[in-house]
Design a protein that fits this description.
Largest sheet: 8 strands, mixed
Structural class: alpha+beta
EC number: 3.4.21.26
Organism: Planomonospora alba
Helix content: 10-25%
Shape: globular
Radius of gyration: 25 Å
Family: Belongs to the peptidase S9A family.
Distance between the termini: 18 Å
Protein name: prolyl oligopeptidase
Strand content: 25-35%
Number of strands: 39
Keywords: Hydrolase, Protease, Serine protease
């Protein structure tokens, strides 16, 4: 096709001097989303994108198939409060999952339907937490993708509102005291009380009395601490113990305190240090048996479970119950005590495949395994707070929509508790786990999903993330299935920076080690080519958020290796990323340009700063979301302008800029449209005939 000219974008002579190094930034003017010239440029990019994509074949087919596969719906594991349960479910025709409750008599009722709250589909349910008796529900909603959660409380039996909204509650846990009269929660300070530009930070832990004005909330914790701290808070089932956790941004470590709020008081808890200034992540569970269970990666990067007395919670008093495994990574646990021999269920991932073991609760001895439906991913294991012999967990794999499984410790059997409600015809695929070596010899695992019996090089999408300790595990994906059904291969690399091999694997891909992540992706691509799965002209890469940074770095470091790129909600200007969105909470993962040595790391790979004129870059589609308050779309705007200016090949550089959508949850119809656009673009530029 005859390519349309790119929208004009002026290049300014903006150069910063950072630690004696000149850093050009010719498109800084695009950082202002409210400037008329930015608006004009975005409108021109939208026109170009619509024109280019509209000329490509296959979009209607992809859209229809992704929508059809998403009609499977979803279902979530139950949360029990007494004889009442709460769970999420999305039926085939719903835009959002709905929160349901089932009363003691077994009657099911929709409790919170985001579409009923807002027929436009722009409202999302961010979080929810019933009180300990199941009579009240705290929930948080946001609008238009901004993730600015407002907190409400409702009466579960009647569905009537009790109070709210309470604003500034983004990422707030809710820890109820027994009786439902009060809860601890986390709230940001008012904008007027913080420096300009820091409105997303400065969180505090408060005690709130239901029905009282928030002005009467009691400040419990956080005053004078690090501005980027995130806080966790929990209250034991009997209401005696309070735990408070603090982590600087997304750091893989936390400080931790406990208080006996019967001996002190809920309003003035006397907090005792569990760990402080320790390079480890630790969480606490106060058992029904009076013991304190400690989940930690302290001296155990793959995780272990210890026990102690709540009165002596410090590490010197911990005793290993389930020690670290040499290969598997501990993910979660549950306690089942209404059996002759009380047990602990321990969830693990072994090279990203889930399994659950059964252990004697007193000695930790491994005495069995929980049967699982297949080689897939298990969601959080839940139990009844008051104890019992049953546990529930979510399960999915590459061809199985989400299900909920029930395990009975008395019989040792696992049965299906709930399936996703929609009946869909899922295409047959072949999934293989392969191992390849990265540039430094490190072994990396990769899942390769292909049509059955596929032979010879074929269009392939390579996906990765590689950050924040997040693992790439098998799961039902309408986009992946639609691509493979059309004849392509989809590969998911378990790169360093993730959590597939524990915390050491994460740290091998963060801060000064970030280049390892990019090397792992390049090595994955080379392995797919060397083994005949694909060829450079049929290979695409895709990633979002931190994965957008990944593919942005990849396309600038090895433009010869990839035919096409989808880069979604990315971080790309790693010199100025801390100034926008939630960027300042991520310098514990990436480093800060304010520090000379960390600036050197960032500058060495920052994608925006490595675009070079006259290079033949892959066809690239940036997809960003105007209401994204985590990663500002300016990263993609600036990078798009730079690539359009530099591109020497006849491969398009396009921008898809979506309004009233954010970084996270969205309506199903928006998900379908985005997937159809991305798959159509990648199919065309890798030669997949749809």
């Amino acid at each position: 096709m005859t390519r349309q000219p790119y929208p004009p974008a002026r290049r300014d002579d903006v150069v910063d001097d950072l630690h004696g190094v000149p850093v050009p930034d010719p498109y800084r003017w695009l950082e202002d989303p409210d400037a008329p010239e930015t608006g004009e440029w975005l409108a021109a990019q939208e026109k170009l994108f619509t024109s280019e994509l509209g000329a490509l074949p296959g979009r209607d087919r992809f859209k229809a198939r992704v929508a059809e596969l998403l009609r499977s719906g979803t279902v979530g594991a139950p949360v029990w409060r007494g004889e009442r349960s709460f769970f999420m479910r999305r039926t085939p025709d719903q835009e959002h999952a709905v929160l349901y409750t089932v009363d003691p008599a077994g009657a099911e009722r929709a409790l919170l339907d985001p579409t009923a709250l807002d027929p436009s589909g722009l409202t999302t349910l961010d979080a929810w937490q019933p009180d300990k008796e199941g009579r009240l529900l705290a929930y948080q909603i946001s609008v238009g993708g901004d993730e600015e959660s407002r907190l409400y409380v409702m009466d579960v039996a009647t569905g009537t509102p009790v109070e709210g909204p309470i604003d500034r509650c983004r990422y707030s846990p809710v820890a109820w005291l027994p009786g439902g009269e009060a809860f601890y929660y986390v709230r940001r300070l008012p904008p007027a009380e913080v420096p300009e530009g820091e409105e997303q930070y400065h969180r505090r832990v408060y005690l709130h009395r239901v029905g009282a004005p928030t002005e009467d909330d009691v400040l419990i914790f956080g005053d004078g601490m690090e501005k980027t701290n995130y806080y966790g808070v929990g209250v034991s089932r009997d209401g005696r113990w309070l735990s408070v956790s603090a982590s600087r941004g997304t750091a893989p470590r936390n400080d931790l305190w406990v208080a006996d709020i019967r001996a002190s008081s809920p309003e003035a808890p006397e907090l005792v240090v569990v760990q402080e200034g320790v390079d480890a992540q630790t969480s606490l569970h106060f058992g029904r048996d009076g013991r304190l269970y400690v989940f930690t990666d302290r001296d155990a990067p793959r995780g272990r479970i210890c026990v102690t007395d709540p009165a002596t919670p410090q590490a010197e008093h911990w005793r290993d119950l389930i020690p670290q495994d040499a290969e598997a990574v501990l993910s979660d646990f549950a306690i089942l005590d209404d059996v002759d021999r009380p047990v602990m269920l321990a969830g693990w991932t072994r090279h990203a495949i889930s399994e659950v073991s059964v252990h004697d609760l007193v000695t930790g001895e491994r005495i069995g395994e929980v049967p699982t439906p297949g080689l897939g991913t298990i969601g959080g294991i839940s139990e009844r707070p008051e104890g019992g012999h049953e546990a529930w967990f979510g399960y999915t794999d590459n061809t199985t929509p989400p299900t909920v499984q029930r395990y009975d410790a008395r019989t040792g059997e696992t049965t299906l508790w709930a399936a996703s409600p929609g009946a869909v015809e899922v295409p047959a695929v072949t999934t293989e786990q392969v191992v390849y070596r990265s540039a430094d010899g490190t072994e990396v695992h990769m899942l390769v999903i292909s049509p059955p019996g596929a032979e010879g090089p074929r269009p392939t999408i390579l996906y990765g993330y590689g950050g924040f300790g997040i693992s790439m595990t098998p799961g039902y994906s309408a986009s992946i299935l639609a691509w493979v059904e059309a004849g392509g291969t989809y590969a998911i690399a378990q790169l360093r920076g993730g959590g597939e091999q524990g915390e050491q694997w994460h740290r091998a891909g963060m801060l000064a080690n970030k280049q390892n992540v990019f090397d792992d992706l390049h090595a994955a691509a080379e392995h797919l080519i060397a083994t005949g799965v694909t060829t450079p002209d049929r290979l695409a890469i895709s990633g979002g958020s931190n994965g957008g940074l990944l593919v942005g770095a990849a396309l600038t470091q090895r433009p010869d290796l990839y035919a096409a790129v989808v880069c979604s909600a990315p971080l790309l200007d790693m010199i100025r990323y801390e100034l926008f969105g939630l960027g300042a909470t991520w310098n514990v993962e990436y480093g800060s340009a304010d520090k000379p040595d960390e600036f050197a790391w960032l500058r060495s790979y920052s994608p925006y700063h490595h675009v070079r004129e006259g290079v033949s870059y892959p066809a690239t589609l940036f997809t960003v979301f105007q209401s994204d308050t985590r990663v500002h779309p300016l990263h993609a705007w600036k990078m798009c302008a730079a690539l359009q200016h530099a591109q020497a090949a006849d491969r398009p550089i396009l921008l898809r800029n979506e309004a009233e959508t954010g970084h996270g949850a969205r309506a199903v119809s928006k998900t379908v449209d985005l997937a159809a656009d991305q798959l159509t673009f990648l199919a065309h530029h890798t030669g997949l005939a749809v």
